[in-house]
Amino acid sequence: xxxxxxxxxxxxxxxxxxxxxxxxxxxxxxxxxxxxxxxxxxxxxxxxxxxxxxxxxxxxxxxxxxxxxxxxxxxxxxxxx
Length: 81
Prior knowledge:
Elements lengths: L2 H14 L4 E4 L7 H13 L4 E4 L29
Parallel strand pairs: 1-2
């Protein structure tokens, strides 16, 4: 996704929701600087509820977590307050 495409998508999100939440995720090959650029772009539009999703490394014999699935432990919320 290009920066202008992201900007358009974020503006659409803002027109649909009063106080949207944005979750940023990527794989291990993404440069940290690119994630910060996306974070800056999101915040520059006034979106303040932003979280960076992380996935624990799978232990041998356990399935890998899928993007977009809640990462919360039992009894904990799946989204950042």
